[in-house]
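Recall the central idea of this unit: under ordinary conditions, the amino acid sequence of a chain determines the structure it adopts. In this exercise we apply that idea directly, starting from the sequence alone.
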Amino acid sequence: MHNDFSRNRSIILSAVFVADRVPNVYPPVSEIMKRPFLFPYTIILFCLCQCGWNMKNQTLNEQAKIKEYLRAEIENNKFPAIQYVVVSDSEIFQFNEGLSNVSENTQITNDTTMMIYSMTKAITAISILQLVEQGKVFLDDSAIQYIPEIPYGKEVTIRRLLSQTSGIPNPIPLRWVHLREEHTTFDEQSSLQSVLSAYPELEFKPGQKYRYSNISYWLLGRIVAKVSGLSFENYVRKNVFQRLNLKEHEANFIIRDSSKHAKGYLPKWSILDILKSFLIDKKFIGPYENGWLLINDHYMNGPSFGGMIGSAYAFGLILQDLLKDHSKLLGANGKKLLFEPQQNLANKPVEMTLGLHIGSRNKKEYYFKEGGGAGFHSEMRIYPKEKIGTVLIVNNGAANADSLMNTLDNVFLK
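Accordingly, the structure predicted from this sequence is:
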């Protein structure tokens, strides 16, 4: 992967780079005068190269403006730090600046990890679809077939869980979290069981309509564990991260290296800051650091609905793989399923695939997954026609990632 600019964006730019390596690309004037037939070809070559250089300069200028814009956002205290990556089959652009730790004035880098919360659901969907491709699970199997203790009946299928049409409730998950130092004694199964006991009723008939549910993806993670014989986290490490050569400190479900993990924050006097005592346990609340409220290191109780830790660079590698003709993560059928729009029982479309939401802006369709919680906010997008993927992660839990991505992505979609 290369920084800031992909040399294979177009045939014209490729020609320019080739020309850049060959000093005397144009024939001498004397040679042209001797051979008049060379003149039109020389003019064409000159125009192509000039056009190529103009396009290159325009692209570089636009990328420079993006960097200036993001630096201004950081300087104006909109974010402590920003990671933003754009990929195709190679890297197009990367930005990693700001503070990963405000009190220690630590600069963020491309391998600094952050919580990505619900963006994890895309990884959970990939894991399930891998098992589907292997014939170990089937989309229309009842979830209760794999997890008998589920209280929701046989109509809740794997397809309904993936497409968020299961009818399972979605209580606010802000308290489904534990401190980093509590992780060694944390019991995920017990935590899930208490949630299922508290919310045992479906809100509507499975397949009737779309409604988001974190519990749905928590259950999918348990199915991955049951079928594979591994914990959900170890399954993902082996079948997603390792396939892409992502190291344990680059993508994980626990913080392997504190020096390479960003601190999460809320802006002082933001709505979330003012209401923090009503939303989260006080043990998660740290001190104020130069206008930012520190949120202590924590893990989600359900790793499959929001527990992944990683960088925009690492998640960009995942999107890059999915954009390639031959993915290391999914076969042709699995990729087709991941991007296939789903329907409800009335055969009307829902704005979901088997794992991703479907969005549209300026007549450009994209697949996306957003993640937000106390301390961080993230979003990923894949633009299928443009064959571009984008990832944004910030350590400001009150940030509007969607709005920022709309501004940034437009530059690369022209």
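The two ends are 22 Å apart (CA to CA).
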